[in-house]
Amino acid sequence: MARLLLRGFDIRKGYLDGAAQTQLIDVLRPILKSAPLFHPTTPSGKQMSVRMTSAGGLGWVSDKAGYRYQDTHPKGAAWPAIPDVILQMWKDLCSPDRDPDCCLINYYGEGARMGLHQDKDEADFSWPVLSVSLGDDALFRIGNTTRSGKTESIWLNSGDVVIMGGPARLAYHGIDRIRFGSSRLLPKGGRINLTLRVAT
Ligand code: MD6
Ligand code: FE
Question: Domains, the chain, ranges and CATH?
Fold first, then answer.
């Protein structure tokens, strides 16, 4: 496993081997069944190209009312619990002292992307965000704590993990594109990104 520090982003290439990636997909399957992926819209009314859902006490949602964490799926049900194997990754890589209350699940189909953004809807930025890449390769762009200035990009592959903490916690970042069909982890292709957050 190679470890790379890029602008304070702690990138563990190949952290999860093939068996661990398959295990994660297996535990995500019932979650996606009970909390189906939905297409959020931004507060300005644009549909995001990524589809999302969450596990945990809180899930991240976006619609015309704004970005926020809430305790139910847009269809009304409580979010499913975060599976133990995923919580264990947080304990190992981030902190044994407090569990995350949100595991945001993003699905990138062909052509999906995510614009440069900051993760700033959480109450306490001293907690890191832990991100897990599964499926197709994705071009991850990292910038600064302001929208301007130079950015750097790195390809994230299935099994890579990124920890965004410390001074990098509020850095802009996004996914420019995925290489659809580059991985065979997901039967229909595409990419799943998990981000674990302490929201409150
Ligand atoms: C993605 N990730 O990898 C989008 N946020 O699909 C994020 O937006 C992200 O990777 C915070 C920390 C790490 C991330
Ligand atoms: Fe983010």
Answer: 2-197 (2.60.120.590)
